[in-house]
Specification:
The protein is α+β, with helices and mostly antiparallel strands. It is built from nine helices and 16 strands.
Length: about 300
């Protein structure tokens, strides 16, 4: 029995559809159907009950599929253990990343990584929406948040302060806010997740928190679009320091109201299981740490960030 056929079976069980499983695996439907027939013939039982409208597990399938999952996980873990012992760096990296950070920083970093390790391949999933590892066919997620699911595995890459920023030209025209109350007369540029517009901005000064309900004429579910608006002088935006570091260093945008800190976060590399953490993933983690800490050090030297961010 071919391992590839078993992997097809598990996808069919996951999607309850031969066509959907084939699409996810980049196979023809006929190829996936043939794999199912070979496995069922080898076992001498039907794993699925087919109707004109759907497909569900048979009694035999309900018993076989979980054991099949465990067996394949054990084989995969054994394979990864051998690679780890031999320091073999290869395999496909299926990574989810946010739009602005992903397009402009992570993709070039991974390109450099693949030049060093040519047996590594990449499938990039670029989105600002929340990731579901079991729905989105990714093995890793590089996200501005720590994992809140105890079943996930994660590596903290770095601290990521938020920056309230605008262009010098915008500030010359509309004035520079000194405190949260001053923001009432300014135009906010907003990130939108699904139907929720993040137009309530929060700031910390010491132990005090300040909330400001902003007015603004632009919102997008793409973080890069928000940054582009900001660089074009359309208003004020709160962005990750990593997203805008080049704009800050070049002077295209400046940090505003630096005594009042927007919410800071952390950058994490997250995996759904220990099996996903291969030698390539560990090396990529180290690459991300090196690259981000270099950026943070540059921002500290320029006086844009406090040195505590890298300690």
């Amino acid at each position: 029995m071919l391992l590839e056929d078993l992997q097809v079976i598990l996808k069919i069980a996951e999607f309850r559809s031969i066509t959907a499983a084939a699409t996810d695996l980049d196979l023809r439907t006929a190829t996936a159907s043939a794999a199912l027939k070979r496995v069922e013939k080898n076992l001498g039982v039907e794993l699925f009950i087919r109707t004109t409208r759907n497909l569900r597990l048979s009694t035999a399938g309900e018993k076989y599929i979980p054991q099949c999952v465990q067996a394949l996980q054990m084989l995969d873990q054994a394979k990864q253990n051998i690679k780890s012992e031999l320091d073999i760096v290869d395999g496909e990296l299926r990574i989810s990343m946010s739009s602005d950070f992903g397009r402009n920083l992570v993709i070039p970093w991974v390109d450099e990584f693949m030049d060093i390790y040519p047996n590594v391949s990449l499938k990039a999933h670029i989105t600002d929406s929340n990731i579901d590892f079991y729905r989105d066919s990714v093995d890793l997620a590089l996200r501005y948040e720590s994992p809140d699911d105890a079943n996930l595995y994660g590596f903290k890459i770095c601290n990521v302060p938020g920056i309230l920023c605008a262009t010098p030209e915008y500030l010359d025209r509309y004035g520079t806010p000194k405190k949260p109350l001053d923001l009432a007369s300014h135009n906010g540029l907003f990130y939108q997740l699904y139907d929720v517009i993040n137009d309530e901005w929060k700031f910390l000064k010491g132990k005090n928190e300040y909330k400001v309900k902003m007015n603004g004429d632009r919102a997008s579910n793409d973080g890069e679009v928000v940054r582009r608006w900001c660089v074009a002088g359309k208003g004020l935006a709160i962005k990750s320091c990593l997203d805008v570091y080049r704009d800050l260093l070049s002077g295209k945008v400046v940090s505003v109201m630096s005594d009042y800190k927007p919410r800071s976060t952390e950058l994490w590399l997250i995996a759904p299981s220990r099996q996903s953490i291969t030698p390539a993933v560990r090396l990529l983690r180290d690459t991300f740490k090196e690259k981000t800490h270099r950026i943070l050090n540059q921002l500290v030297k320029k006086g844009i960030l406090d040195k505590s961010v890298i300690t």
